Amino acid sequence: MNPITYTTYLISTALLAALSQNPFIYIVSLVGALSAAAVWGHLSRARCAFCGATLFIMTAINPIVSHRGATPLFFVGDTPITLEAILYGASVATVTVACICWFYILSDRLSSDKLTYLLGRLSPRLSLLFSMSLRYVPMFLRHYKQVKNAQKTLGRYGDGSFFQKLRAEALVLDATVAWAIEKGIITSDSMRARGYGSGRRTSFAQYPFTKKDALFTALSLLLTVATALPMALGALDFDFYPTPSSLEMTSPGILCVTAYSVLCILPLVAAFVGFLRERRARRHTRMRTAARVKTVRHTEVKNEIS
User: Fold this and answer.
1) CA pair distance 121, 98, nearest whole angstrom
2) Facing residues of 72 across strands?
């Protein structure tokens, strides 16, 4: 899939969920994010545990710090724990976890070369700067650990006081920063020697934009518009305080939720269509192979008879 396609899709789904004020959209977004992560292979136990812990903690914290609402469930001392605060905390936690999942997928799929492909034509210098920065951050941390381990081997840390350890850390950081500056100067000289910026810039794209990408992008934009317009007109406005609003929705609200639901399950639909096509191709391959074997056997029998 082309980077333009899934970047447009993932940003649209995350922004619509973040700008919405309806718990139905939050739930659909979370379910869609988890399903997309499962389809695209970005769902792990560690991430599920982190998302579950975030959901639980945010839901539990809000009724402790916020006591608004007209329906107190019980009291902790003189502090009321209201139903509206619990529902609002769960709602905010759901949309937060959903957006985290969407951007988890985007960060996994958007490598530095794909980022250069996306921003290269719009702003080549910014694209190059951003991709090089992403490369230098892990290099900086790796070199910092190497210098620190070398200093520990020389006994510079030891069992000294806090200020001695702080001075040792400052020396390690100073050496690492000096290395980073020197590395940047070497990279700059190398790029200048190779003629960077001396002529008209050309671009290389190894991600073709196919008909499938165009169809997926068009559907994503169409469903995004169909969701955003009723949302902007207030079809999905929902209030938790002082009492929760009614869950009944008008026709524009139902259209909005339906369009966003279809948008969130587009990866599932695409994966299912791909599975059906692959299954059909395998069946046709088996049929052609069987026909060829039958033809060869018929020819061999005919030759033996003759």
Assistant:
1) 31
2) 82
Residue at a domain's end among 195, 230, 250: 195
Distance, CA of 132 to CA of 183 (rounded, Å) = 12
Q: What is the pLDDT along the chain (306 residues), one digit of tens a residue?
A: 788 888 888 889 999 988 888 888 899 999 988 888 888 777 778 888 888 898 899 888 888 888 887 888 888 777 788 888 888 889 989 999 999 888 888 887 777 677 777 776 666 676 667 667 767 778 888 888 898 888 888 777 766 677 777 888 888 888 888 988 888 888 878 877 877 767 666 656 677 788 888 888 899 999 999 998 888 888 888 888 888 887 777 888 888 889 999 998 888 888 888 778 888 888 888 888 877 877 877 777 777 776
Q: Clarify whether residues 19 and 88 are in a common domain.
A: yes
Q: CA 271, CA 262: separation in Å to the nearest integer?
A: 14
User: φ, ψ for residue 287 (rounded to 5)?
Assistant: -65, -40
> Using an 8 Å Cβ cutoff, are 144 and 167 in contact?
no
Matching residue, tokens 């659909």: 28
Strand 79-82 with 72-76, pairing:
antiparallel
Cα Rg of the chain, angstroms: 29
Rounded Cα distance between 154 and 148, Å, is: 10
139 in a structural domain: yes
Domain that holds residue 306: 271-306
Residue 79 is inside which H or E element, if any?
Answer: strand 79-82
CB 251 within 8 A of CB 39: no
Q: Measured on CA atoms in the order 152, 156, 158, 159, is the torsion positive or negative? A: negative
Same domain membership, residue 22 and residue 105: yes
3-state secondary structure (DSSP) of residue 272: helix
Instruction: Name the β-bridge partners of 79.
Output: 76
Q: Are residues 52 and 162 in the same domain?
A: no
Tens-digit pLDDT profile for residues 12-58: 999 998 888 888 889 999 998 888 888 877 777 888 888 889 889 98
